[in-house]
Design a protein that fits this description.
With 998 residues, the protein is an alpha+beta fold. The protein is 67% helix and 10% strand. The strands form 4 sheets. Strands 2-1-4-5-8-9 form a 6-stranded antiparallel β-sheet. A hairpin with a 2-residue loop joins strand 4 and strand 5. The two termini are 25 Å apart.
């Protein structure tokens, strides 16, 4: 068996989904599973066990059929699931299990319980896919158990080697070892032999004691009624003197019981008085203790206030300085605003001066303004020249526009002529499209009337098909319900018949001596019938009847549902007919296609009509445009001559105004830029001078406000100022201190509290113990009194019955002696069995010899040849023999019990024993190959040398591609074993971190 992959979701401490790749971990052969205590290392092994067997070892399974396995960290909508991928017996399998899940309801509030689920799949290497094998819990469990060849207990001991269990096994007695070995090697058949002999002995004993069984039963009842104060004679049933001894002991018991009744009544009266006094004292002590605690707590709070007084005074001083600083806050804000404004003005002035020539670098605001006025005056003299230059540009544009109009009219005239030449052909084509669209609209109207009936019939056919499937499933459910009803009825009739066969024993159970039998009326019952094994009582029969009735109701319900389904199917068939659904779907689809095509063609009608109308309008527009073009061409000839004369006059005027510049506009632009730069620089200089004066005024006002508030400098006032959050926090601290001081002063002033503090310290626990002790003594006294009364009544009744039974003693013991001797030998209780060895223990002793021999091979290697495990069948004290285990010390040559080994020796001895047991159980299971093993804890008790030897032995387990997982806290193993699986603990659940051998 080899593990490949494990995935857990919402399992144990893992709130989410965690995955373990055992193939990666197994590359190095040895891997380490470690993590802090409580993180979930054992839960990883539990998940493997749960995936294979549907349960986890021991008490960790919890209640509720596995609901305790769910992680408390998981989200409510996440279901618990474990998936294990493994290879066993040459088959690659994947088993998935989900325990019962109490999930939130999908509708409304509350929860609902989902049943457990199991899946088993096998990998088909030929097809390269997974094939489902089963979803039945029982089938999955049987398949896994058959392939592994071992039960869950064997698996947990062989594959998940728990070192602690085997350390206890080394120190356990024979009985404890026998329980473990019996589970692993399945020696139930030998225990069944012992049980069968014991049953035969009991049967023979019942035959011998038909006469005296009632007497001995009454004697035991009297002994129980007398609370074992009555001594029974040490005589077996049928021995002489038994009756007289029983009657004599009964008389003594009755006398003793009456004396005890008198003593119990006196004790009860005294206990009632003591309990009342103890309760009153307890109330007084509790009240005094409460007041003393209140006074002590107030003193502690007062001391705490005294320790914090200096901090309180400092906080008051800080608050006072903050209040004074608030008067300076407006001046501080004004000064900061003035400084920021001055910085902006100075930066703007420097930026505008940088754009001027160097001759203006030292000029003031007045000089810059005068230079700006001179440039503006020179610019004003160029207005007439600029107007002439603009007019010349306009003339050139008009001349160009006339040329463009000539070309445009020529193109327009050519286009109109070409369009008018093809007018008749275009009009005929547009009219044809209008006619076609009108025909398509008529066809679409006809097809639209047929669409809804076709769709309705198709829906009815689909409903007919679905109802046919539902009817088939309903028929199958009816058959299943009928079968279950028949089986339940058969089971009930069988139980009823079994009960009738054993009704005599059921009636005999209610027989009483001296009362008539309900069947024959006799008052003596010498040999009442006894219930045989597997007797069916009335409750079992009624339970079976209830199950039958419930199954019959379910059958009737399924039949009603079948009738409803058939009626619905008939209605759907009547509407849809017998035509197949596919044929109807094809017809409907074809009709829809034709309808869509016709509607698409009809939709072109309006567009075609609109295009025809637009074409007519275009024809009229083209005719008008051709006429207008001829008129415009004639008018442009005179306009062109007037423009030429005006242009010649303007060019002569501009040559005089431009001077050295390329144009009047260039000269004007030059003057405009100089005027704008000089104006901006003058404005910026004036603003900088104004902001400098305001900053100086703000500094003066700030210094005056700080001095008036009591601060040496304005910076000191700024440092004392608090923001809103700091001010609120400081005020809260001051208010809390004052409130606490007032509360403490009020408590210390209370008179009853101060008076209680002056008294000795109260001890409520002692008073409570005294009250509980008094109440306990009262309950014991009342119970003893009631028991004494019942004891007297029971002994009187049972003594009368024992006297009547004395007359029916007749020994029949020859057969009983022979069977009892054989049963004693098999059970190890007979004196003839010198070693007191049971039959099952005898068989297990042979298995233990094999385990010891297999364990010795590894133990000698781990102990450097010093220790050897041997089986011993000597008796341990007065106990039984057969399952002793000793260790032979080669250094001393002496043999001693394994319980004398030290901690480290116990560890590697238990490890060797676990590995040896794994080998023997594997052979017992048919030689199933175990390629993955886990070893749990114990390595911390070893020194370095022994740890190396143990790891060498574990490393040898890797032979034939076997991998071994070590579960340990030992830090040194993290250095020695490179492949690791770490369990990390967190508030939201644990997580797995995997590190390969590399």
């Amino acid at each position: 068996m080899r593990l490949h992959r494990l995935a857990v979701t919402a399992f144990g401490p893992f709130g989410g989904t965690q995955t373990v790749d055992f193939d990666e971990l197994s590359v190095a052969g040895l891997f380490l599973l470690h993590g802090p205590t409580g993180a979930g290392k054992t839960s990883v092994l539990d998940a493997v066990c749960y995936a294979l067997y549907g349960s986890v070892p021991g008490a960790r399974q919890g209640g509720g059929q596995g609901t305790a396995l769910r992680s408390d960290h998981a989200a409510p909508a996440t279901r618990t699931e474990v998936t294990l991928d493994l290879t066993v017996a040459g088959r690659r399998l994947e088993v998935t299990r989900q325990p019962p899940w109490e999930r939130p309801k999908k509708r409304g509030t509350g929860t609902t319980l989902d049943k457990a689920q199991s899946w088993l799949r096998e990998y088909d290497a030929t097809a390269g896919t997974w094939k489902d094998l089963s979803r039945s819990h029982q089938e999955v469990g049987e398949e896994i158990t058959q392939l592994l060849g071992m039960s869950r207990e064997q698996f947990c001991q062989v594959v998940l080697l728990p070192q602690g269990d085997f350390a206890r096994f080394l120190r356990a007695d024979a009985e404890a070892r026998g329980k473990l070995l019996g589970r692993l090697f399945d020696t139930r058949r030998f225990a069944d032999v012992e049980k069968r002999l014991s049953e035969r002995r009991r049967t023979a004993e019942a035959q011998v004691r038909d006469g005296d069984a009632e007497l001995l039963a009454d004697a035991h009842r009297m002994q129980q009624a007398a609370d074992d104060a009555m001594e029974l004679p040490d005589l077996a049933p049928g021995e002489p003197g038994l009756a007289e001894a029983v009657l004599g002991a009964a008389a003594v018991a009755r006398s003793t019981a009456r004396e005890q009744l008198t003593v119990a009544a006196c004790t009860l009266t005294a206990a009632e008085s003591t309990q009342a006094g103890a309760g009153q004292a307890l109330d007084e002590v509790r009240e005094r203790a409460r007041l003393q605690r209140r006074h002590a707590e107030a003193r502690e709070r007062a001391a705490a206030l005294e320790r914090g007084a200096e901090a309180y005074r400092e906080a008051q001083a800080l608050m006072e300085r903050a209040r004074k600083a608030e008067a300076v806050a407006p001046a501080l804000e004004l000064r900061e605003a003035s400084e920021a404004e001055h910085r902006r003005a100075a930066a703007a002035g420097a930026r505008t001066r940088g754009l001027l020539p160097e001759t203006f670098a030292d000029a003031g605001a007045a000089g810059l303004a005068a230079a700006a006025r001179r440039a503006a005056e020179e610019l004003g003299g160029l207005d007439s020249a600029r107007r002439a230059e603009r007019r010349l540009a306009e003339l050139l544009d008009e001349r160009t526009d006339l040329d463009r109009q000539d070309r445009a009219d020529a193109d327009l005239l050519q286009d109109a002529e070409a369009w008018l030449d093809g007018w008749e052909e275009r009009r005929t084509a547009l009219q044809t499209r209008v006619d076609s669209a009108q025909q398509a609209a008529a066809l679409a109207e006809q097809l639209g009337a047929r669409r809804e009936p076709a769709q309705q019939r198709l829906r009815a056919a689909r409903l007919r098909d679905q109802l046919a499937k539902d009817t088939e499933r309903a028929v199958e459910r009816v058959r299943t319900a009928q079968d279950e009803t028949l089986r339940a009825k058969q089971h009930w009739l069988e139980l009823k018949e079994q009960r009738l066969n054993g009704i005599a024993a059921e009636l005999a159970a209610h027989l009483l001596d001296g009362e008539p039998c309900a069947v024959c009326g006799a008052t003596e019952h010498p040999a009442p019938a006894r219930k045989a094994a597997g007797h069916v009582d009335r409750e079992a029969e009624e339970h079976a009847l209830t199950a039958y009735q419930r199954a019959d109701e379910q059958r009737a319900g399924t039949e009603r549902k079948l009738g409803d389904a058939r009626q619905a199917l008939a209605a759907a068939t009547a509407e849809a007919g017998d035509t197949p659904t596919d044929r109807l779907a094809e017809d409907a689809e074809e009709l829809e296609g034709r309808y869509a095509q016709a509607r698409s063609a009809a939709a072109e009608l309006h567009a075609a009509q609109e295009r025809l109308r637009q074409a007519g309008q275009e024809h009229e527009r083209r005719l008008a445009a051709r006429q207008e073009t001829a008129v415009r061409t004639a008018a442009r000839v005179g306009h062109r001559e007037r423009l030429d004369r005006e242009r010649a006059a303007l060019e002569e005027e501009l040559d005089r105004a431009r001077g050295s510049c390329d144009s009047v506009a260039a000269r004007a632009a030059q003057l405009e830029r100089r005027t704008a730069l000089l104006t901006d620089a003058a404005d910026a200089a004036r603003v900088a001078e104004d902001t400098a004066q305001r900053l100086k005024d703000a500094d003066a006002r700030l210094a005056d406000a700080a001095f008036r508030a009591g601060f040496e400098t304005p910076q000191a006032a700024a440092d004392a100022l608090l923001d809103r959050a700091a001010h609120r926090e400081l005020q809260r601290r001051l208010d809390a201190w004052e409130h606490e001081e007032a509360a403490v002063r009020a408590v210390l002033a209370e008179g009853d509290t101060a008076a209680a503090a002056r008294e000795p310290r109260a001890d409520p626990d002692a008073a409570q113990r005294a009250a509980e002790d008094a109440a306990r003594r009262l309950r014991e006294a009342a119970s003893a009194h009631d028991a004494a009364e019942r004891r007297c009544a029971d002994l009187d009744r049972l003594s009368a019955r024992a006297t009547a039974s004395v007359r029916r003693l007749a020994p029949l013991r020859e057969e009983y002696d022979r069977v009892a001797r054989m049963a004693g030998l098999a059970a190890g209780t007979s004196a003839d069995n010198e070693r007191r060895m049971r039959l099952e223990s005898y068989v297990l002793a042979a298995r233990l010899e094999q385990v010891a021999a297999a364990a010795t091979v590894r133990l000698r290697r781990m102990s450097s040849g010093r220790y050897t495990l041997v089986h011993s069948d000597d008796r341990a004290g007065r106990g039984r023999s057969g399952l002793g285990l000793h260790v032979v010390d080669a250094w001393t040559g002496r043999e001693r019990d394994t319980a004398t080994l030290s901690g480290g020796e116990t560890f590697f001895a238990s490890l060797a024993l676990a590995l040896g047991l794994a080998d023997v159980v594997t052979d017992e299971a048919g030689g199933v190959r175990l390629d993955t093993l886990f070893i749990d804890e114990g390595f911390g008790s070893l020194d370095d040398q022994t740890l190396d030897e143990v790891l060498d032995v574990l490393d040898s387990l890797r032979e034939r591609d076997r991998s071994v997982g070590i579960v340990s806290h030992v830090a040194d193993l993290r250095r020695r074993v490179h492949a690791q699986l770490e369990v990390v603990k967190g508030r939201s659940g644990s997580a797995l971190r995997q590190r390969g051998a590399g």
